[in-house]
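Thread title: Can someone regenerate the structure for this chain?

I was given the following input by a collaborator and told the matching structure tokens would be attached. They weren't. Posting the sequence so someone can regenerate them.
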Amino acid sequence: MVKDFEKVMETLSKINVLSNPNNEPVTIIGEAEDMRCVGIGTDAAVFQSENAPAYAFKLYAKDKAAKVMLEEDVYRKLGNSPFFSTCYGSNGNCLVLSYEEGKTLFDCILEGIHIPEQVIQDVEEAREYARSKGLNPRDIHLKNILLQNGRAKIIDVSEYTMSGNDFRWEHLKKGYEQYYHLIDGKSVPSGVVETVRKWYNRRGKKSLSFEEITTPILKLFFKD
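Best answer:
Regenerated them for you:
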């Protein structure tokens, strides 16, 4: 655990994370000068401290705090792997992880940064590794994968104890293989990407084919 762990926890206590309905990103209330937010998800927000820059502090919304122990257990089962962050422990509704450099694939799409095929291969290998540890690698999407020196690093494993397949990764992989060349190296407007994200997340429990998913997306991207 970090040397200034107690000081960091005291600083984090000034920040409150609130969950939102419809699978929307959390809301952050409060701030601290020596903390910066480096990521926002639907259950938690991730912070980096000036006093301990090598660590990431994943602060869950209070009503999602039960997920802390579940995610910590997933990291314990994963052990040391180049494909995942390192977990150093937890405190209340906060998980302490290694801070990982790199841009998410979501940001790569926005900024027109090339996503190499090696990233796709790395995620496939990471999923196989997770399965070998008795886990179910799911909820793998553009915001949960970092591009790190041309390789993939997965930064959220909170759903790996859940059953079923959400097909997020399968859809992304197929989309990459069939359509990524059309936008490779091009900046995609954030409004377009957010529209696609929200539409996809609101599919609910509908089991749509890849074609049913991609047809409206292609019309949105190439409406002209």
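The chain has a mean pLDDT of 89.
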